[in-house]
């Protein structure tokens, strides 16, 4: 267990991020480096050009957003050195953003080129298995934790549309349901992308069939008031990604953003970047957006980060350590131990995320 005490408590308050995709948080410089080194063609030669091609400034459809990954993932997937470096650099970036604790998610299968069917990104078959991808990411994260004084855990994703299936509506595939049942049995934590652009019914499925402990996005929960009230009663955590929701079209700016209701109701939610490479953002983008356009205050930022820490998948003792760190940084009394902790028994987290039109993820990691 790594101590959080090396973190400086000066300057901006510390933050907790629970919803960010490793493969959507790679540095453009690193993509260009491995594209050149491995002789893999990329759609641009400079950081600026690459950001123009893979970044977004205006809303796109979800398929348009997902297509961005195919431009750059070939440069990283299948390369042991690149995968480890991406995980390490991710923590350097998050430390600079004043993140004390991050849960980062990814699908190992998207980075492997062996024992995976299909092999993604038109890669030739190689010898990098999903298991080894997990080991490499863990190594990169552990090195990053030591170097940058940040704490990280990962969540392994499975994709709603894999393997070989087409998504119709919000139906769940038996394999995914079984994976979640096994996770429940094994004490593995679970989160699910639901209600991002999909309906409240998808959220209900995530809660009732997959027994998710958190909801990724979850904006459309509000279309079903009874479901929303039920989740509020259960203190369900919503992993909100404001800037992402604008660029993916999950939130229509002419409507009130769900996070405003969450704030007004003092609901349990966090603010997160989701895919900062593609959204050309940092965590500050999301905080500034909610502060400038939605009336969020510093007090609300503290409250939501404490809720994020409580809803993290850390074991109870490490969760308490994180809460103590936040209380200290925020100048609040360390009364966290008196507050009811959420139940989290396992060292592993399993999360299913489902981008509504068919990109589901499930995650695990120490
Ligand atoms: Zn996401």
TrEMBL record:
Membrane topology: Peripheral membrane protein
Transmembrane segments: none
Needed cofactors: Zn(2+)
Domain of life: Eukaryota
Enzyme class: hydrolase
Domain Adenosine deaminase: start-end pairs: 16-163, 164-328
One GO CC annotation: cytosol
GO-annotated biological processes: adenosine catabolic process; hypoxanthine salvage; inosine biosynthetic process; negative regulation of adenosine receptor signaling pathway; purine ribonucleoside monophosphate biosynthetic process; T cell activation
InterPro entries xrefs: A/AMP_deam_AS, A_deaminase_dom, Ado/ade_deaminase, Metal_Hydrolase
Keywords: Hydrolase, Metal-binding, Zinc
SUPFAM superfamilies registered for this protein in UniProt: Metallo-dependent hydrolases
EC number(s) on file: 3.5.4.4
Gene3D superfamilies xrefs: Metal-dependent hydrolases (3.20.20.140)
Any GO molecular function: adenosine deaminase activity
Subcellular location: Cell membrane; Cytoplasmic vesicle lumen
Family: Belongs to the metallo-dependent hydrolases superfamily. Adenosine and AMP deaminases family.
Protein name (database record): Adenosine deaminase
UniProt source species: Tupaia chinensis
Taxonomic placement: Eukaryota, Metazoa, Chordata, Craniata, Vertebrata
